């Protein structure tokens, strides 16, 4: 067996809701509110493009104009919210090189006549221009040399005696401002720190708006930096963090919101929130941001049961970005008992540059799958009260940094050290298997681990729950002398989720819905193990 350790990503499972005849996917809802909660509808898809389509299908039966944004660059779309509301145009996300086939279908459904491309050729290519021309769409591009100039160009399309200034290098404050800006038709200008964009300064000097609203604290939009541009700040809506800033903006703008709807999105994962700002503004509703697994203290009072009982809540994104625990709380329903409160779980995404792990037939890399699944598993576990430590949160091995010498042994030891030094209660390593045309799922433990018996029991529960959740062949629980299992001091398992070497399972491992299911299955196995400990 080829040990190229685990890869797990998980995104959202796409459930259907036929709110409208044209709803294709991406909506999950409760039919009615409970006695103590609100009706909740979740809009999401298996990837960023699919989520943008779900939002479009929720809000638009047709639209003459559609705005396209590159799916990895959020800033242009946030600044475009007021213009999109003015044009009553949804924002769709696509890769920059060419039109996603799903986007083409959505353009047909919307009966679009014109497409606006956001950003320069480096964001959305000239190939896309040719595709649109061949499909007989009128198109234009709004794009400057950078996101700051693009925001100024968009602002020219939204005349106002007010401007909103936000940090354009990090987006939570801009998200909070966008729905309000869309409702009030106030342009959003993006600034940078420490170099204030000249194009934004030029915009102010040209138009001299009577009111300049800054969203965010002094740490993200420094007063001194703004004053150097001779831009007077009329009002600052900023708190100690992004969530308090959002709460202050909501309080300030409350009179502008005229519907019985609220939109809730992640303040940490921006694409889902970004495409939702236009829908929220279209419906005269506020968009608020949250942590993935719990409502922040500054936001929670807005969602108090007595305030939302007669409201409809739209959650943007899957449970990997806004957890099921939050949704259950809003609906006044019970959620999984916080079984893991007080527990520390080290989640180990196997491999990482310079080691890609196993490679699939189509060239996919195990390291990417492992990291994605691990990140979703972290959210699932945090929702049950656990403290989660990831051995790596980015592409690189935890034992590698520029200028250092990488060794496999050093990599494995670093993962062990992270677990032992954090006094973890559990160690969960995520991998993909690789061996010819084999298929299925295996969970490994080591009888040489000081907690070998507990590791075996943990492996049993995870193997059972995971295979039931993802529907793969159950290859069983196996004893192994794998380094990370022998040398950790707490119950430890290594999960080979599926075979990246098999074309079908490779495709599954690259699918966000499958990744999320895998994370949920592993989490459920851990919870079953904790319940077992409570019984013995």
From TrEMBL:
For biological process, the GO terms are: peptidoglycan catabolic process
- Note the SMART domains from the entry: Ami_3
Keyword Signal (UniProt): yes
Q: Which CDD domains match?
A: MurNAc-LAA
Which InterPro entries does the UniProt record give? Answer: Bact_Sporulation_Assoc (IPR051922), Cell_wall-bd_2 (IPR007253), MurNAc-LAA_cat (IPR002508)
Q: Which UniProt keywords apply?
A: Signal
Q: Which stretch is the leader sequence?
A: 1-26
Stretches assigned to the MurNAc-LAA domain: 416-527
Coiled-coil-forming residues are none
Check the record and name the Pfam families matching this protein. Answer: Amidase_3, CW_binding_2
Q: Which GO terms describe its molecular function?
A: N-acetylmuramoyl-L-alanine amidase activity
Name of this protein = N-acetylmuramoyl-L-alanine amidase
